[in-house]
Hints:
Helix content is 84%, strand content 0%.
Amino acid sequence: MSLWTVLLLSLLPGAGNFAGGMLAEFGKTSDRLLNWALHAASGIVIAIVAVELLPEALKALAGWWIAAAFAAGGVTYILVEMGVEKLQSGGKNRTSMWMIYVAVAIDLTSDGMMLGSGAAVSSSLAIALAAGQVLADVPEGYASIANFRDKDVPRRRRILLSASFILFCVGAALLAYLLLRGAGEGPKMAALTFVAGLLTVAAVEDMLEEAHDAKSDTRTSILAFVGGFVLFTLVSVGLETVLGGSSGSGDGSGPGIESDLQSLQKNENGPDAS
């Protein structure tokens, strides 16, 4: 897969996020809708971690490496939050608003990392991730812009902030593809596990907290969370299965993702492993 193809695919998650933001910008918003959108976005983020990141990491990393990388990601998010709190002078309300932006930016960055490193393994994996994330990022975009509207951020700034999310995904995809394509599975999966730690803290501590501040939870809020998880799982895993069975490996031929991983493991074990 060429660098330009990777960059083109990396535009898709950001475009989905921007589309969701414009739905909130030019459509009707309310505290209840914001609560539902944030619950759906949290479910999507948890699905990214549970369905895409950690299962792949478990194939290549020892348990203690996963624990260390995940912990490093979580601690990094705490440090980012502390930095935002020091920079903001508007109090907790504005700090939580910017932490939603940080959470979505981290998620888009992880999308780019997954696309860039996935493209180094298999083109079908990269396509499945990109296609699945288009729909999965719409609720996050809606939630972020609805949150900014609720905090009375000017419209021009809201649109610019929504568009800026695209840069995180494209930039991360470029860096991941260039830096990780020649690396072994260990460094790639350690980086993704690090992102998993960031995303988990973002979903649990900031997105859900902001959802609760916007409006008290209902059973529909829970269903929105479950629906977000199910949406990402069905779209991402379903497309990956279809494309993995019909597409080839990195050069467009061959049996697909599983064959790539099996070949890698065989090469690591040596010629006599079979």
